[in-house]
Write a structure and sequence with these properties.
This protein is an alpha/beta fold. The chain contains twelve helices and eight strands. It has a domain of 209 residues: Alpha-Beta Barrel (TIM Barrel). 48% of the residues lie in helices and 12% in strands. It binds the ligand CC(=O)N[C@@H]([C@@H](O)[C@H](O)[C@H](O)CO)[C@@H](O)CC(=O)C(=O)O.
């Protein structure tokens, strides 16, 4: 085994949602309740402050507050990966150092966004974070949102650093996933990003996944992962199809996270609305939310039968 325990990162890792009160401020109580809900559901880990966590829409102080609440509630019981990517390298490093100080298990980051950065610039940005702590680092590759396309050559170069343990790949190409797996070598984790392709990603070499829709249906992703581990391919495919029905419906709401939060509310978890410019669901969407909730509860009951 290398320097880091990679098993901690294999399996289903929920991309944690932004939790707000009715004024739109961070709600630490809701953060703790949501974290506890995932721990009780049997989820292995949480990815805090990523796309689903709306980290890019929060100040550094708010991001620290969220991570601290998560650590207080489930730190030590779950694997906690802190997404620390911010527009500036300086703020990203500050967040990485904070993540280490509160006991997170790993840090992860997207490239800086907005400027069309060269590979050298992105590499320097990531290396500043990697070198600022002794924590494992997980590269976050999501080119459709950042505009930066990680090459296998750059991945190989970064993977040579002993603290770079893996990549979260949210591009929708399982071919690219397989290429990253090969380029990273045997001690390098590849974590599936597109939830619609969890089974496909796992079958070409992903070690698990981090996803933004796991949080509304952790039971279904845990069931799917169990079928994969049991080599029950046909059953796994059925669960992926059910999951995809839910995701397809969620993607029709004004924003994905607005839909996810509305569904969680019906599960008794009030975490507010997404922060603008992400849109909440409207009254006109409520019938569709209710219908989706009914369908989802039926699937969860089947998964637990
Ligand atoms: C492009 C995108 O947002 N991808 C998501 C997926 O979980 C995605 O929401 C899901 O597959 C539905 O399309 C994740 O890969 C990213 C994510 O969950 C996160 O960082 O929070």
């Amino acid at each position: 085994m290398g320097k880091h325990d990679l098993d901690k990162f294999r399996g289903v890792i929920v991309a944690f949602y932004g939790c707000y009160d009715n004024k739109g401020d961070i709600n630490p109580t809701a953060v703790r309740e949501l974290a506890r809900f995932y721990k009780n559901a049997g989820v292995k880990g949480l990815y805090v402050g990523g796309s689903s966590g709306e980290g890019m829409l929060q100040s550094a102080a708010e991001r620290k507050l969220v991570l601290e609440a998560v650590m207080q509630e489930v730190g030590g019981d779950m694997t906690i990966i802190a997404h620390v990517g911010a527009p500036s390298t300086r703020e990203s490093v500050e967040l990485a150092i904070h993540a280490e100080s509160v006991g997170a298990d790993a840090v992860s980051a997207v490239p800086s966004i907005y400027y069309r950065l060269s590979p050298d610039s992105v590499e320097r940005h990531w290396r500043a974070m990697i070198d600022s702590t002794s924590l494992p680092f997980i590269i976050y590759h999501i080119p459709q949102l950042t505009g930066f396309h990680l090459s296998t050559d750059m991945l190989k170069k970064l993977a040579a650093h002993e603290n770079v343990i893996g990549v979260k790949i949210s591009s929708e190409s399982t071919y690219e996933l397989q290429q990253f797996k090969e380029a990273g070598g045997s001690d390098f984790l590849v974590l599936n990003g597109p939830d619609e392709q969890y089974l496909a990603g796992r079958s070409v070499g992903a070690d698990g996944g981090i996803g933004g829709t796991y949080g509304v249906m952790p039971e279904l992703f845990l069931k799917l992962e169990q079928c994969i581990r049991d080599h029950s391919f046909e059953e796994a495919r059925q669960w992926q199809y059910k999951i995809n029905e839910v995701i397809t419906a969620l993607l029709k709401f004004p924003s994905l996270y607005g839909g996810c939060k509305a569904l969680l509310k019906l599960r008794g978890l009030e975490i507010g609305e997404p922060r603008l410019p992400l849109l909440p669901v409207t009254e006109q969407n409520q019938d569709a939310v209710n219908a989706l909730h009914e369908k989802l509860m039926g699937y969860i009951a089947q998964a637990q039968a």
